[in-house]
Every structure is written in C-alpha cells, then in structure tokens.
Specification:
- This protein is an all-alpha fold and 157 residues long.
- The protein contains eight helices and two strands; from the N terminus they run ααββαααααα.
- The protein has a two-stranded antiparallel ribbon.
- The longest helix has 26 residues.
- The radius of gyration is 17 Å and the shape is globular.
Length: 157
C-alpha cells in the first residue's frame, strides 16, 4: 500500500478514462450536480454514478468547490484497500489467517492492482464491489444472516 500512496496526488492525468473521470467529478463538484454527474454540461451516464458520487462526496468534504487529484486518486486507493480487506476476510473464512494475509498481500501488490489504485478511474470501484459481493455470497451460503444483505449491497454497487 505504500507504493500506492507515493506521490499519489502528483503527476499528470495518464489515461483518457482518468481524464474523463476527473473532469466529470470536478465539474459536478463545482456546479453542484449531485444526482446526475455531468461532463461539459451534459449528463454523463456512460458509467455508473456511484464512483462519481463517492469521489464527489470526498472532494466536497475536503474542499467544497474543488476536486483535487489527491482526493480523486485517494478514493481509488481507499477502494483498493477495502478490496484487500474483503479478500483477507474471505480468505480467512475459507482457509486461515495465513492464507488470508498472503492472498490480500498478493492482490494488493500485483501490478494491475497497484496501477488501478493509483489512478482515478471506475475499475477499482467495481473491483471493491465485486469483492464485497463475493464475501456476502459466501456468508449467505454459510447461512449467516448478514450474508444476503452484504451480497445485495455488493451487487447493487
């Protein structure tokens, strides 16, 4: 996770998906478009709105009228951390602590995970939602009361 946080708010936007995400969140924060994210004054429903809402809320909490790259990329890093936690919890329930720790570390340090956690894009949000849904499905399969709720939340996200 230290690799992910190193100079995370610095550097140029590196990918067209990151540019689109950043422009949409920055415009939505500046203009106050909370329900439907906008880009260049037009509603943007190309991607699900949840990643925009999370990034907008974080940007609003930090600076009410500006979404910095540190905040946008920090949200991606937080989603990556939550994915690693879900992988750990699932590994612990399926196997043991050692396997869970190695699984979470393997996921968090593989090249693609590190790249996604360092960029302000949608993909890491989807990964976190899928990991949460998998944890919920396992819990539901084991007849835990909260399993279906967690699976539904993960699938809805």
């Amino acid at each position: 996770m230290a690799v992910t946080g190193y100079r995370i708010g610095q550097g140029d936007l590196v990918h067209s998906m990151e540019i689109g995400f950043a422009i949409t969140v920055q415009e939505s924060v500046r203009e106050g478009h909370w329900l439907a994210p906008t880009q260049n004054g037009k509603v943007r429903f190309i991607k699900p709105p949840l990643p925009f809402w999370i990034a907008q809320a974080a940007a609003w909490l930090v600076d009410r009228d500006h979404a910095s790259m540190l905040v946008l990329r920090g949200c991606s890093a937080a989603m990556g951390l939550s994915t690693a936690i879900c992988v750990y919890l699932l590994g612990r329930r399926l196997f043991d602590r050692r396997v869970a720790l190695w699984s979470a570390l393997a996921w968090a340090t593989c090249h693609m995970s590190v790249v996604e956690m360092r960029l302000a894009r949608h993909d890491i949000y989807l990964t976190a939602a899928v990991a949460l849904a998998m944890l919920g499905v396992w819990a539901a399969w084991r007849k835990r009361r909260w399993g279906w709720v967690v699976a539904a939340v993960g699938l809805t996200l």
